[in-house]
Amino acid sequence: MYLLENIKNLNKKYNKYGISFELNCQIIKVIEDTPFCLNNNSELKEDLKQNYYVTFNQINKWHIGKTDVLRLSRRRIAFKPQKSITRLAEDLKGYINQIKEQELKNSVFLFLREEWRFFYKPAAKFYHHNYPYGLLEHSVETIQYALLLYDGKQNIELDKDLIIVGALLHDIGKINCYEINEGIVSITELADIQGHIINGIKIITQHIKTGKLDQLIHIISSHHNLKKWGSPVAPQSNEAYIIYVADLLSVKLL
Fold it and tell me: How far apart are CA 203 and CA 232, in angstroms?
């Protein structure tokens, strides 16, 4: 359904690196303009292997196998946010304006006015929202999903302020963990020595003012749910569970 569109967009993104993609029977061949083009660019090669399952064998050389061709035919690859940047920023401002605690609202607005990188950085190197403005898009989506869960659970006590700010800032550490250059995302040294969760906690303790800081730290600490997935602790509060689920929905429902 989406295969030809995806191939067209892959060519549009990667032609500048000297490679192109061509459907050939049940596989997609990667055509190199110069010999060893991919082998001479390890970052590009890793990007293609991880994001699009590009592989190598002596018969087909660099290519995408038939199993992953099928995957590409069923799912549209995202290379940019689905909404305009202006619309995402407007949506974000609307959500922040719903925060009732004035000190919390003011500190969030102040932080975002000063931290322009939040609006440009990708949300990941591989798999999801790994393009310019991806972090903004992912954060807005997480707020949207979290508020849907909030609206559906009016029979239990929930803190809407924590849900909005927790969803907004759950990945804030990624502003220091990823760089992007000509469409290729790289991981910073800080990502290796801290990771986005620890760095995110550092950021909010320095910039976010609220009497609910401990609850907010818990949300950020637990939003990957399990230690093996990177969270120091598992969700313990209703708000933390909601952010974990909302984050997962944004990642998986591409």
Answer: 17
